[in-house]
Amino acid sequence: MVDTKSFPQWANYVLGGTAGVLATTCVQPMDLVKTRMQLSGEGTSEKLYSSSFDALVKITKQEGFFKLYKGYTSGVLRQITYTTTRLGVFTNCMNWVRARNNGENPNFLQKMACGMIGGACGAVVGNPAEVSLIRCSADNRLPPEQRRGYTNCFQAIYRIVKEEGLKTLWKGTSATVVRAVVLNPAQLGGYAQAKELYYEKWHLFKTDGFGLYVASSLTSGLFCSFVSLPVDIVKTRLQMAKPGEYAGAFDCLKVLMKNEGVFALWKGFTPYFLRIGPHTIFTFLFLEQLNKLFAKYYMKQ
Q: How far apart are CA 33 and CA 68, in angstroms?
């Protein structure tokens, strides 16, 4: 296994962000479908899609294949900000705890705590890109006269600041942070814990390679999808809300459950998991390979 303790701290941020960008390129279409599914049927609007597959087919047929990558620049910007921060902070926290433990791996609770810290930091830094991504992805579902017509994430951010004020870029930050401190312990801490169990303790895998990475990332991806989706839905509704529509995250949650039922909290679970699962797999596959390359060619290990 690659020892990242000897890596300079900046490397953990750069390698984490790069892995996130590469993973996002692979899964961007499912992220757009997830957003459309979550917003379908909101309030009095018509429910446009019967399933994730139906949404994928209709979007491709009615709007064209490349519309599946609408908001891609925002997704990349989100990875550069959010994932760079969360993975960098998480890895450096894990290395710090490992040093405090005299070289022993962090225990389960310590892994979860490192994930929470990394997630919270990443959520604050990445919220402007998150707002931009949600706006760009959902724009085409609005009536023509209500569409904002953003061309890319940078133009979206510029117009949001100009038309709605700088604070709008951090709209829904409370829900974003809550989601991050729920998702990241399950995803990052869960991956580290599963990898340690599968490889070092249970010896289910003989080598530190592809099979181990896939099994560990799927374990964390399934769990974090279930626990974080309700928070993600509330966050999405808040970021798309008109001024004064909701008093806050808890008001949004109450309205959603009253109007659409408890199970609406897991609406779009399939595309959400199909994004979280593959994105988690790709992120850690890329990250593990980038770590190996960095150790070999930069650190000369």
A: 8
DSSP secondary structure code for residue 65 in this structure: G
User: pLDDT tens digits, residue range 36-51?
Assistant: 877 776 665 667 788 8
Contact 169, 134 (CB under 8 A): no
CA nearest to 79, candidates 116, 126, 44: 126
Q: What is the pLDDT of residues 44-82, one digit of tens each?
A: 566 778 888 888 888 899 988 888 887 687 778 989 999
Q: What's the rounded Cα separation, in Å, for the pair 3 and 5?
A: 6
pTM of the model: 0.76
What is the pLDDT at residue 270?
84
- What structural domains and CATH numbers belong to the chain? 4-297 (1.50.40.10)
Task: Return d(Cα 87, Cα 71) in angstroms, integer.
Answer: 22
Asked if 246 and 237 count as a contact pair (C-beta separation under 8 A), the reply is yes
Distance from chain centroid for Cα 25: 13
φ, ψ at 209 (rounded to 5°): -150, -155
The answer to whether 180 and 130 have CB atoms below 8 angstroms apart is no
Ranges of residues in the chain whose predicted pLDDT is under 70: 1, 41-46, 71
CB 150 within 8 A of CB 136: yes
Q: Where are the alpha helices (DSSP H) in the chain?
A: 9-39, 52-63, 72-78, 84-100, 108-138, 153-164, 173-184, 190-195, 210-240, 249-260, 269-297
